[in-house]
């Protein structure tokens, strides 16, 4: 690439980033002032318009849903993708409005089943890891945890460009009661381990990691990669690892389920245990997605047959496949390419340090 072309590309990226930041600021300030019925109607209209345009994100969503429901015909897949776009835009309308919700509205906005797995673990003084797929609205679920359960938690987010956009999303999530760590820099794993050893709560969105070193799992009959971080944190700290799935029904209240704990296998080396545990996470995700496919917001390539994994970049300093705090850009609504992650991305190295115990010794007090 010539210097002139490179300079033009950087300028274009800067302009796009500035526009994105301004658009998010406008959306947050405008949508949160709308009456809730108007915000819901706006979300449905934007979703339907995007769906009718048949852009890359919508087509990729249908291709992914075809893996979930292999017997579904074209009409059924189109019906599901339309419902999926409505679910996706409901996420965004809610997220833009969450900072203006009252505590009572947040407490009544989520109704998870089997939450006793979480509360019992916390009451026992044991650290807990909640691992979620890209379903429903995990920002709302997180706000419910900090408000209803009065329990703070820690998560990670990949740095976005421009920095102002990243700072905006970090401030938004911190305003909901979350501690947000940057995914890059190599310290997140150690900090999360310290939080868990102290009996704290960690929440990670962890159903997609197409780097060269993610853990390969079977997912709806095909191979993909998912982050190793949740399983490795559970092994290293003794924390409880709980899969969680989320979905919407026709009411204003989001539904969810805390699945039974993923136990650490009694046999095998660390790599074997990590693989087994990550597969069990994938199985729990699959059960929830199969029941509520329209609420799985996977508008990007996922399976290895669709996209060859991207090799880990040496010296990147990225955290070891921890997952992330969830989306920060409505990819489908803006018609960006299907490969674009619903950032903060989980397409980061999923390998843990060569010896996690060594890392623990260097990053804990």
Count of β-strands: 9
Alpha-beta content class: alpha/beta
Q: Main beta sheet, described? A: 5 strands, mixed
Oligomeric composition of the shown chains:
single chain
Query: How many DSSP helices?
Result: 12
Which series of helices and strands comes N to C? HHHHHEHEHEHEHEEEHEEHH
Instruction: Give unreliable regions as ranges.
Output: 4-19, 313-319, 327-365
Instruction: Strand order, main sheet: write it out.
Output: 1-9-8-2-5
Cα Rg? 20 Å
Strand content: 5-15%
The helicity comes to: 40-55%
Distance between the amino and carboxyl termini? 46 Å
> What shape does the CA trace take?
globular
Report mean pLDDT, rounded to a whole number.
80
Ordered list of secondary-structure elements with their pairings:
Elements: H1 3-31, H2 36-53, H3 56-68, H4 74-97, H5 103-107, E1 110-113, H6 116-123, E2 128-132, H7 138-147, E3 153-157, H8 163-175, E4 178-182, H9 188-197, E5 201-205, E6 215-219, E7 222-226, H10 229-237, E8 240-248, E9 254-258, H11 270-291, H12 356-363
Parallel strand pairs: 1-9, 2-5, 2-8, 3-4
Antiparallel strand pairs: 6-7, 8-9
Helix pairs in contact: 1-4, 2-4, 3-4, 9-10, 9-12, 10-11
């Amino acid at each position: 690439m010539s210097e002139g072309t490179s300079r033009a590309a950087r300028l274009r990226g800067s302009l796009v980033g500035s526009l994105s930041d301004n658009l998010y600021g406008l959306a947050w300030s405008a949508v949160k002032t709308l009456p809730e019925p108007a915000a819901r109607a706006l979300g449905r209209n934007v979703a339907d318009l995007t769906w009718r345009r048949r852009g890359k994100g919508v087509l990729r969503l249908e291709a992914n849903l075809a893996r979930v429901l292999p017997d579904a015909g074209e009409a059924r897949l189109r019906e599901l993708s339309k419902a999926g776009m409505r679910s996706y835009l409901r996420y965004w309308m809610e997220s833009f409005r969450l900072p203006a919700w009252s505590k009572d509205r947040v407490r009544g906005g989520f109704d998870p089943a089997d939450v006793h797995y979480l509360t019992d673990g916390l009451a026992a003084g044991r650290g807990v890891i909640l691992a979620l797929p890209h379903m429903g609205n995990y920002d709302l679920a997180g706000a419910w945890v900090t408000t209803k359960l009065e329990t703070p938690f820690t998560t990670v987010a990949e740095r976005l460009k421009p920095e102002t956009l990243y700072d905006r999303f970090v401030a938004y999530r911190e305003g909901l009661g979350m501690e947000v760590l940057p995914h890059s820099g190599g310290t997140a794993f150690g900090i999360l381990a310290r939080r868990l050893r102290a009996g704290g709560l960690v929440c990670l969105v962890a159903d997609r990691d197409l780097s060269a070193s993610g853990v390969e799992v079977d997912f709806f009959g095909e191979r993909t990669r998912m982050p190793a971080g949740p399983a490795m944190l559970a092994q290293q700290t003794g924390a409880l690892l709980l899969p969680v799935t989320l979905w919407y029904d026709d009411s204003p209240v989001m539904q969810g389920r805390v699945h039974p704990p993923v136990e650490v296998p009694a046999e095998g080396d660390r790599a074997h245990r990590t693989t087994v545990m990550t597969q069990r996470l994938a199985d729990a995700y699959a059960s929830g997605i199969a029941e509520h496919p329209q609420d799985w917001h996977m508008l990007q390539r996922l399976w290895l047959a669709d996209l060859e994994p991207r090799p880990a970049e040496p010296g990147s300093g990225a955290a070891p496949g921890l997952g992330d705090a969830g989306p920060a850009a409505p990819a489908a609504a803006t018609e960006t390419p299907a490969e674009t992650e619903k950032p903060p991305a989980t397409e980061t190295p999923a390998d843990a340090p060569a010896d996690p115990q060594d890392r623990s010794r260097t990053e804990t007090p």
